[in-house]
Design brief:
By secondary structure, the protein is α+β, with helices and mostly antiparallel strands. The protein contains four helices and seven strands. Helix 3 crosses helix 4. The radius of gyration is 18 Å and the shape is elongated.
């Protein structure tokens, strides 16, 4: 019985760092445009889609606002979100990159702005910014993994090491 409970707890913990790494390094044997549309479909499940730039093989999710701890801040009356100091606006840029060997890869990069106390202008936080709330990269990794799972049938197996 203990083993069953432990297995259930471990399964609920989410993806391992190895799974996320595999998703980030994956290449796909599918046309770049088809992979872009597959990524859009995978993303729609969790995020509204913003601008799509098919010529650049990328799209961005619509802006969403979160508290500094990662709770989604819902729009109130007339669709306005009440921002507090520390609130962040998060979008994800998803880009498909054709590779030299005829495959394609996908990257997910967060685009984040943080509301500062006493400032009318939010501060942009780069993905490597030490002030970036950890949940932002976690959500980017989860989206990368969702796209990887959706495109699983097209994944090119990594070369085996000797």
């Amino acid at each position: 019985m203990r083993k069953l409970v432990l297995a259930a707890v471990l399964a609920a913990c989410g993806p391992s760092s190895q799974e996320v790494r595999t998703a980030k390094l994956a290449t796909y044997k599918i046309g770049s445009s088809e992979l872009l549309h597959l990524a859009i479909d995978a993303t729609k499940v969790a995020y509204p889609i913003g601008e799509i730039a098919e010529d650049r093989l990328e799209f961005i999710t619509a802006p969403r606002f979160y508290s500094s701890t990662g709770d989604l801040e819902s729009p109130g009356a007339e669709g306005y979100v009440q921002l507090r100091p520390g609130s962040v606006q998060v979008q994800f840029i998803v880009q498909v990159a054709p590779t030299a060997d005829g495959t394609a890869a996908v990257t997910v990069t967060p685009k984040t702005f943080q509301k500062l106390s006493g400032s009318p202008k939010p501060r942009e936080l780069q993905p490597d910014d030490p002030y970036l709330p950890p949940f932002v990269l976690g959500r980017a990794d989860a989206l990368q993994l969702d796209i990887y799972h959706r495109a699983q049938q097209f994944v090119v197996p990594p070369p085996s090491s000797p």
